[in-house]
Amino acid sequence: MLNSQGYELLFIDVESGSQVNASSMKETEWKTTSVLFGWDVQGIWPGVDYTDVNAVDRSKNGKILATGDDFGQVKLFQYPCVNEGSEYQEHYGHSSHVTKVKFSHNDEYLFSTGGNDLTVFVWKTDWGTSSGPSGAGARAGAAADDDEIQMDSQGEYGSEGEYDQEVDPDDDDFYEPDIAGAKQERADKKQPAKAAPTQDYDSEFGDMGDEYAAADEFMAVKPWIGAIKAPTHFTKPEPNQEMKPDVSAELEWVHGYRGSCNARNNLQVTSDGGLAYFAAGVGVVLEQGTENTQKFF
């Protein structure tokens, strides 16, 4: 499963290299999730446009979704994140766009890399070393009867990854992407341009006009929509699925130091022998000893 340069959602058979129909893949349990456009990440977008999020990664226990965006934020969502406007935890520190986020093998750490700030942040999570279902199993857990998604002492869901009820497609609680609407959008795009009043981007934004016009067209088409297929027995998440996850991540270490000409005098020695400097948007005091530690401000 991948996103193309044209923002399509594609499924490729690794052995043959051929493209696979999206409908035949909707029950697949994916070991990892890192696509920006897909069924289970629809709620990560802030609503401005569809270019602000740069990276996505799902925790190994299948319960948390991390994103990195153009605003220097690292966000944590509940997984799956299918509802528009889902709430999230936000973590700051980067002074530039976040280019990548990645969980460690046991979820104990979350790594994020900055663009122009040239740093790597290590975030310590409070749910590390837990295990649990992924893919469809996590989706089934979202439909459980519990008031909120919680991890027990083993870090597992109450369900065993099985869908626990049949779904009536006519039920209002059944979640199904608006495929008909997406098809109509594409059909409308093929119609001859009308003489209706349009936004004059050139006169309003000058040289930036072409970029804004292209963004408007991109938002209208949404090339990935046609390939989004909900699992057959997925029920619409409870309202609390839209809430921010009940977990935390704290900054553990900042790798990187900027000593170029536009950051002179960016290193001082504290009275007790520590080194004070800034990296990205964080003030750092490195306390030297048998075990080096960092404090952040």
Give a verbal description of the structure.
- The chain is an alpha+beta fold and 297 residues long.
- The protein folds into three domains: 1-177 and 228-255, Methylamine Dehydrogenase, Chain H (7 Propeller), CATH 2.130.10.10; 184-221, no CATH class; 257-296.
- It contains four helices and 14 strands.
- The two termini are 40 Å apart.
- Residues 132-179 and 189-205 have low confidence and may be disordered.
Q: Averaged pLDDT, please?
A: 74
CATH fold description of the largest domain: Methylamine Dehydrogenase, Chain H
The tally of strands reads: 14
The CATH H-level homologous superfamily of the largest domain:
YVTN repeat-like/Quinoprotein amine dehydrogenase
CATH architecture of the largest domain: 7 Propeller
Distance between the termini: 40 Å
Query: Strand portion, in percent?
Result: 15-25%
**Helix share, percent:** 10-25%
Which class best fits the helix and strand makeup?
A: alpha+beta
| SS field, number of helical segments | 4
> How would the global form be characterised?
elongated
Main beta-sheet strand count, sense and barrel state? 4 strands, antiparallel
Number of structural domains: 3
Poorly predicted parts: 132-179, 189-205
Strands side by side in the biggest sheet: 3-4-5-6
CATH class of the largest domain: Mainly Beta
